[in-house]
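User: As part of a screening pipeline, I want to sanity-check one entry by hand. Below is the sequence and the SMILES for calcium ion. Please return the complex as structure tokens so I can compare it with the automated output.
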Amino acid sequence: MGRPSALRPVAEPPTDGPPGRRPVAREGTNHNLAVRALEQVRVSFFFFFSKGKMSRPTETERCIESLIAVFQKYAGKEGDNCRLSKTEFLTFMNTELAAFTKNQKDPGVLDRMMKKLDLNSDGQLDFQEFLNLIGGLAVACHESFMRSACCQK
Ligand SMILES: [Ca+2]
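Assistant: Here is the complex for your manual check:
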């Protein structure tokens, strides 16, 4: 485990108990360690995106920053600027993913996508729900690239 954050001190991972006994499932569960690791990443990203960017961002960091910026751009068009309304989602799809939407012959496809992505059924897409869309599209593109790469061999 890395150094404790200045913002959120992190308890040291538990030491192993006597053989044959599992440590008390509180602080040291894998789930809690994973959650704490995730919090560390979030804190690091908070510093990266909010403070002076001391070093040039990597390609991956720029991609993450772009996804956040695009989400905020469309989510901020009306109402709750932390979530995409259906109108904002349609604007996003027809602007940013026009190549995808233009090829759709089924006019209900975006409605169904919105319903499927809206995991908590609040009629809006939060950033996590938005990322599920981006992740799904990225996987589909990757698989398509892989298929065409395999066909060229
Ligand atoms: Ca939602």
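Points to compare against the pipeline: The pocket of calcium ion is lined by residues 118, 120, 122, 124-126, 129 (CB under 6 Å). The chain has six helices and no strands.
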